[in-house]
Design a protein that fits this description.
Blueprint: E1 3-4, H1 6-13, H2 17-25, E2 33-36, E3 39-43, H3 44-60
Antiparallel strand pairs: 1-3, 2-3
């Protein structure tokens, strides 16, 4: 079993520190483990499972719900007028 420190969790998930703690408070992210008086960590396998669950949610959505970033449909360019 491996314990991740906050920096590693942030790097692995791409989340911000505040988001990790907010998700934890809301029960949406694995709880941390107290390692010492001022030290906490997260169980790596729990964080990886959370990431995999997020991927499963994404993959369960219909393709039509995906956002197309390469399209400018519906965007008006008034600078050229």
């Amino acid at each position: 079993m491996k314990i991740l420190r906050l920096k590693q969790v942030l790097d692995l998930t791409g989340l911000a520190r505040a988001t990790v703690y907010r998700y934890m408070a809301d029960g949406l992210f694995p709880r941390n483990v107290k390692l010492g008086i001022r030290s906490v960590g997260w169980v790596e396998s729990e964080v990886v499972e959370w990431i995999q669950a997020q991927i499963e949610v994404r993959d369960s959505l219909p393709q039509s719900r995906a956002i197309s970033l390469g399209s400018n449909q519906g965007v008006s360019n008034k600078a050229g007028k």
